[in-house]
Design brief:
Helix content: 25-40%
Oligomer: single chain
Number of strands: 24
Strand order of the largest sheet: 16-17-18-19-21-20
Number of helices: 13
Amino acid sequence: MGKRIVVNAGVTETRLAVQDGNLLTELYVERADRRSIVGNVYKGVVTNVLPGMQAAFVDIGLAKDAFLYAGDYTANLGEEDRAPDAEDEVAGVDVGDAEAEPRREAVAPIEEMLRKGQEVLVQVSKESLGTKGARVTSFVSIPGRYIVYMPQARHVGVSRRIHDDVERDRLRGIVKGLPPPAGGFIVRTVAEGKGEEELAADIQFLSRLWAQVQARFDSAKAPSLLHEEMDVTFRVVRDLFSPEVDEFLVDSESAYEKCLEFASSLVPQLASRVKRWDKDAPIFEATGIEREIDKALRRRVWLKSGGYIVIDHTEALIAIDVNTGKYVGKRDFEETVLKINLEAVTEVVRQIRLRDLGGIIIIDFIDMERPDHRDQVFKALKRVLADDKARTNVLEISELGLVEMTRKRVRQSLQSLFCAPCPTCKGSGVVKSDATLAAEIFRKIQAGTGEGNGRDVVIRVHPEMAHHLESSQREGIDRLQTLLGRKVAIQAMPAYHREQYDLMFR
């Protein structure tokens, strides 16, 4: 089986998965009460200018003010002769790492370009993550099926995933030969093989859309939304539905009709591949996707060979550790290590994409003594990362077997979307051991012996801790009763969490 797209339209959320064979490679989740704002265009108001950070905060009507970096702002919309970095995740849309002019720098200090209370047109380039507000830019990019239109740019780029130089030159020539509106363009990967008619229609549609945005900016009161990106089903049809996709399965009638309508409009030649799931079994369970999502939320992921990888999240970075696990190889230890590391490369990158991990990522491969083995693993990593839509930067493997890489973060990771910090461990991943908790309770009892006039102390704890105190700590309880001259009773409280306890002196 080749690639397929599977849509599960639930009551409160829509989930879209991309499978390559039986492997889940991408997952998109959109909730009814919290749609993605990446790509949305707003008329905002500058609330604060920070010369020391060369940035500004902009009120765009959200709970938190958005962050605007000086290098992401141009004062003359539509007239600035500079191009945004086409590798910079254009409005959250895959452009196939199109070639671009050098990364832009601010032409003037932020305090000379912006002032408090000024109205600006901005587009969200990155979701609000954690305590940070959304990141915005004034370099607008509007994606179509075949073209991404950038009003502030002045060049034509072509996706590097189109490898044929003749085809690249043909597509660039078509766009340059058209009488397009002022601005820059990126020809997307799916445009390969398309003619002038399709590209011209896309450009005309995008230019009309941009004209509407500018007209709304002139009349709207700030802060206000000028243009909203379509929902996740439309984006998946526009960006991912290609001839490589054998089938597009949808499990709800309303979502099926919507996907079929989008496909008929954008890719009519593929519309017949959109199919309604009519079986009794839930679509994600029948296709094995639910099981893969569950694996993607675990800390440890097993490899087919018996090795495994461990993924840990920290404040500063994400650490991925590769281990031999149950695999011991046959004869040569170096060959065993190479085999596991090469197998881990594919799974590590799949997990990075599936979990949507971003920021600094450190991969700790099993130590390899031979330089040629390290070179094989590094080349394999670069090759697999070439299919990743997010921009990545990878450094060569060190002698310790470490790979340092960065991956552009645009949206929440799968873990932050599906999970919340544990209320007991507060996100640390560990709780106090039984022995530590028992010793702490005994110290608190000793410190509180002056409380109350009675001769009893009642320890209220979680049932598991109550069992530990009554069994493993029985001798300690007896010594404590003798030392204090009070009776110590233990009361199990099922509603308490693992570390919770109360002491009652009576």
